[in-house]
Specification:
eight-stranded parallel beta barrel, two-stranded parallel ribbon, 14 strands
C-alpha cells in the first residue's frame, strides 16, 4: 500500500514544462561549476514539518489531511516512517533530518521514551538499507515538553539539566546508529525572558559544558558527525543566546568550541535577527563556519517564524553565491525547514511545495555559478577597493601603518574623492542574470 499513490516520481522536464509535478530547473545530474546539482545542493526533507506538521497555528488546530491520521502512538510513528521513505523516493532526495521526538512518541518515563525510540530507529535503519536517502542530521527536541520551561542546557534546575544530558546521550547514539553526517544543536529555549531572575554567566557556562560533554561522548562512541549550531534570535524566549551567526561564533570562541562546530543557518532566522540570509552565510563563511542550510523564507509583513518554502530567486541566488565561494557545504546540505501553508492541507501540496523550493535553489545555483564565472561582482568589488592595493592602503593591509603614518598621509592629501557604489546597477545586473539575459 502506498501513502501517496496518485503521485508519480518527480522528473526533470525543463523550464518550459507546464507540469506542476515536474522540475523546471533542478536536474540532479546536470553539471554546474564542476559538480552535479545533486552534489552541490544535497537536498534534505525535514521530518517535523513534512510528516508531523498538522497545519495548526496559535489561533486554530489541525487542517492537514494525511493518510496516517487514524493511527496513534507507535502505530502512528511507524506509518509516518513508511510514508516518509515513499516521499523521499518520489522526490529522489539524498537526505532527511529529524528531531528525536518527531520520529517516536514520548512515554511516561525516560526508559519508555527510549524504548519507543529504539523501535522506530530500527525501522528507519531497515528502510535505509534499500533507500538512497541517508540521514543528513538529527537533533534532540529540548523545547516542547513542559520540563524545558526554563530552558534545557541553560535551565535553572539541575534535575532538568541531568535529563538533558541523558536525552543528548541517547540522541548522539541514534545519530551514530543511523550514520548521520551531522548533528545539530538548536537552543529552542536557550535564552531568557528577563535578567531580573537570570544568572546569565552560569547559564552560558553550563551550556558550554554540555557541548564539551557531547564532544567527549561522540569521541568515545566513534560518532564522527560534524557538530552544527543553529542560530535564532527570538521565539520562544525574548533573548536567545544564539542570536545570530556573529553571536554564536563569539560564544564558540570564548568557550574553546570553535574547532568542533560549524553553523546550520536558516533564512527565516536571519530575517528575524534583522539580517539577510546571505549576510549570515557571509559572516559564517569568512570565519570558516558555514556548515549547512535550513532553506525557507519568512513573510516580511509578519514578525514571527513562518517557515515558508523558499521561492525568492534573488535570495536563493545570493545564498548559493556564498555556498559556491565557500567551496560547497562539505557534509552539510540544503534542508527544507519549511511547511506548507495552513490552507494547503492536501497531501499533494507537500510535493508542490518541495518542487518549488528545489527549483528555486537549482535556479539560484545556476545563476550564482554564472555570476562567479563572469566575475560580475568580484571585478567590481576589486576595483572598488583598489586603493588598498597600493600606497598607504597597501601599508594598512600589510599591518605596517601607524596612526602617525596615517596622519602624515592625510596632512599631505587634502583632497578626498569617493566613487559611487553603483548599487542600483549591480541589482539590475543580477536581475539580468536571473532572467537569463546574460
Amino acid at each position: 500500500m502506498t501513502t501517496f499513490g496518485s503521485i508519480n516520481k518527480i522528473e526533470f522536464e525543463g523550464r518550459h514544462s507546464r507540469n506542476p509535478l515536474a522540475f523546471k530547473y533542478y536536474n540532479p545530474q546536470e553539471v554546474v561549476a564542476g559538480k552535479t546539482m545533486e552534489e552541490h545542493l544535497r537536498f534534505a526533507i525535514s521530518y517535523w514539518h513534512t510528516f508531523t506538521g498538522e497545519g495548526s497555528d496559535p489561533f486554530g488546530g489541525k487542517t492537514a489531511i494525511r493518510a496516517w491520521d487514524h493511527y496513534t502512538g507507535l502505530d502512528l510513528a511507524k506509518a509516518r516512517v513508511e510514508a516518509s521513505f515513499e516521499f523521499y523516493e518520489k522526490l529522489d532526495v539524498p537526505f532527511f533530518c529529524f528531531h528525536d521526538r518527531d520520529i517516536a512518541p514520548e512515554g511516561n518515563t525516560l526508559q519508555e521514551t527510549n524504548k519507543n525510540l529504539d523501535v522506530i530507529v530500527s525501522m528507519i535503519k531497515d528502510y535505509m538499507k534499500t533507500s538512497k536517502t541517508k540521514l543528513l542530521w538529527n537533533t534532540a527536541n529540548m523545547f516542547s515538553n513542559a520540563r524545558f520551561t526554563h530552558g534545557a542546557g541553560t535551565t535553572c534546575n539541575a534535575d532538568v539539566y541531568a535529563y538533558v544530558g541523558a536525552q543528548l546521550k541517547k540522541s548522539l547514539e541514534v545519530g551514530k546508529e543511523l550514520g548521520a553526517q551531522n548533528y545539530v544543536f538548536w537552543g529552542g529555549r536557550e535564552g531568557y525572558e528577563t535578567l531580573l531572575n537570570t544568572d546569565m554567566e552560569l547559564e552560558l557556562d553550563n551550556l558550554a559544558k554540555l557541548y564539551h560533554m557531547a564532544i567527549q561522548y561522540a569521541k568515545e562512541i566513534g560518532f564522527d558527525a560534524q557538530f552544527l549550531i543553529e542560530p535564532k534570535p527570538k521565539e520562544p524566549t525574548k533573548h536567545q543566546y544564539d542570536f545570530d551567526a556573529a553571536t554564536t561564533i563569539a560564544f564558540l570562541q570564548k568557550y574553546g568550541l570553535k574547532d568542533y562546530f560549524k553553523l546550520n543557518l536558516e533564512a527565516n532566522h536571519a530575517t528575524l535577527a534583522g539580517h539577510t540570509f546571505e549576510h549570515e552565510c557571509r559572516v559564517a563563511r569568512i570565519n570558516g563556519m558555514l556548515g549547512s542550510l535550513d532553506a525557507n523564507q519568512g513573510d516580511l509583513l509578519l514578525g514571527w517564524d513562518t517557515d515558508e518554502f523558499p521561492q525568492d530567486l534573488y535570495s536563493t541566488t545570493l545564498t548559493m553565491y556564498e555556498v559556491l565561494q565557500n567551496g560547497g557545504l562539505d557534509r552539510g546540505g540544503v534542508n527544507f525547514d519549511a511547511k506548507v501553508r495552513r490552507g494547503s492541507f492536501e497531501p499533494e501540496d507537500l510535493f508542490y511545495a518541495h518542487v518549488a523550493g528545489m527549483d528555486a535553489y537549482a535556479k539560484g545555483l545556476k545563476v550564482a555559478a554564472k555570476l562567479i564565472e563572469d566575475r560580475a561582482l568580484e571585478d567590481f568589488i576589486a576595483n572598488r577597493y583598489r586603493s588598498f592595493r597600493e600606497g598607504i592602503g597597501a601599508e594598512v593591509v600589510a599591518g605596517k601603518a601607524t596612526l602617525q603614518s596615517l596622519e602624515q598621509y592625510a596632512l599631505n592629501n587634502p583632497t578626498i574623492k569617493n566613487e559611487s557604489g553603483r548599487l542600483e546597477l549591480l541589482r539590475a545586473t543580477i536581475n539580468q542574470y536571473i532572467l537569463g539575459d546574460l
